[in-house]
Amino acid sequence: MNDTVAGTQGYGADADALAEQYESVTFEEVHGDLLHLYPTTPVRALDLGAGTGRDAAALARLGHTVTAVEPTPELRRRGQELHPEPTLTWLDDALPDVPVLTERGERFGLILLTAVWMHLAPAERTRGMRAVAALLAPGGTLAMTIRSGPVPPGRRMFDVPEAETVALAETAGLRVAHRGGRADLHGRAGVRWAELVFRRP
């Protein structure tokens, strides 16, 4: 996988600056309003679009067995250097179809999609939700944070209606557990984040 993957344009070239940005906020700051919805006993967890692995490493430290999926080689290498947790495995795969994960046939009790979904075009989001839902174990939790606002130069992002994401999840057999939102932690003008959590019955 590389910059030809949907939504990864510009991330490899900016990997150093992005690593500094990602690591400047904590897992707890990013996921604060959602943490009470995440599993408290150890599960297999998946961080899809893991970036530098900040969240994946935090989950590993909480006792989960974590797979961090990142299609941008520069970010994946940086993540492996920064976060060598023994229960954290890195994987080169990408939405919307996550073929490597799908082939492996694993199911996960927690899936994070943090700052990823808005990189997918509408048709890709339909395919992506089906693929992600299929990776979720019975009783599992899917947590999504989705950016809205100005698109940085050289990036591929779309406005994603919250109602569309909810409808796609419900069509894929998931139920809404939380709908919320927050301001941007980096203070970027006009940027907001939708927070959605779904469960597989």
From TrEMBL:
Domain Methyltransferase positions: 46-140
InterPro entries reported in the protein's UniProt record: Methyltransf_25, SAM-dependent_MTases_sf
A Gene Ontology biological process term: methylation
One MF annotation (Gene Ontology) recorded for this entry: methyltransferase activity
Keywords: Methyltransferase, Transferase
Keyword Oxidoreductase carried by entry: no
Keyword Transferase part of the UniProt annotation: yes
Pfam families: Methyltransf_25
Family matches, as CDD domains: AdoMet_MTases
Endpoints of the signal sequence: none
Name recorded for this polypeptide: Class I SAM-dependent methyltransferase
Organism of derivation: Streptomyces melanogenes
